[in-house]
Amino acid sequence: MRPWTRRFWWTVEGVAFAIVIAPFFVIPADAAVRAFAAVGRWGLPLAPAARRIRENLAMVRPSLQPRRITREVGDNFGRVLAEYIRMPDFAARSERRHARGVEHLRQAAAAGRGVVVVSAHFGNWEAVRLAARDAGVDVGILYRAFNNPLFDAMSIWRIRAAGEPVLHKGRQGGRGLLGALKRGGVVMVLLDQRSGGDPLIAFLGREAETATAVAALAQRTGAALIPAFAQRRADGLSFDVTFEPPLPPGDPISVTGAINDRFSAWVDAAPGQWFWLHHRWKRRKVRAR
Prior knowledge:
Number of domains: 1
Radius of gyration: 19 Å
Largest sheet: 7 strands, mixed
Strand content: 5-15%
């Protein structure tokens, strides 16, 4: 696709999305979250992505009911999207974030060697950063920018509302992460997605290509690695946020394995709150020589 054609379609997509979400800025925030949840709950089972959820479940958790999990994933995905759209309202409701283990984060941050909060696309990870801010610790994030720059522009200020710095994944973001840790900063990294070509490490009992760069960076800098997650409560609007003790230091492979073990435990506790939409267990094909 030519550059001007790509820019044209990016503009069309961005404007269309802005028009669709515009009504949700004038209704109460909780109503917007519930509306998006309903769309996700009933719409995702009808979408092509539902097949990916079924395939993932068949590989690692065949005992779970695909239809139920798909509805729950759609419900949570819709809520997360609405919470991003209404980020100022979401951020302001600190009484809905019930945090425990904050002392682990505070102690690690006070040590001055930097902290990487490792989390996953589970519940709403932004509730983790907001709960940290509630406790007086600002947590940035390393995230993958949207392909459509208009979507990214609409999203970036919402992401920043939960904490700074906000770093794009890639070489520049990696340098930014290193710099933040050297300054004693705290940054969240979501490590549950596939990283093609990286080592195979067990996740939910099945080997998956998993990035070890963050564990290697922590080993190099002495930064603490703190697993943290926000599990959505039954009301659909509030969260139990948990900051776990820092992971023991070790080589990148073993530490990343420990991270995957923590993620697996979270998913098994509430499988409908993890985004089963990723190609998590896909492997890069090796060409025959």
